[in-house]
Fold:
Amino acid sequence: MKEILLNGETRTVSAETVSALVDELGLAAPMVLVEHNGLALRRSEWPHAVLNGSDRIEILRVSAGG
Structure:
């Protein structure tokens, strides 16, 4: 377990990678954008982006509409 800053709030997670975090949060991968410590990640980078304590993660949900 580690504490990260997720969208501005401290949160304890068990995920080891960004990809695992998206799964842990129950988010649909095609519908989110992820920033890891200020760096926007491509979805292909998520499995290789290792989470460490005190990392800053911003997750934006993409929604369709007019």
Summary: The chain has a mean pLDDT of 95. The first strand starts at residue 2 and ends at 6.
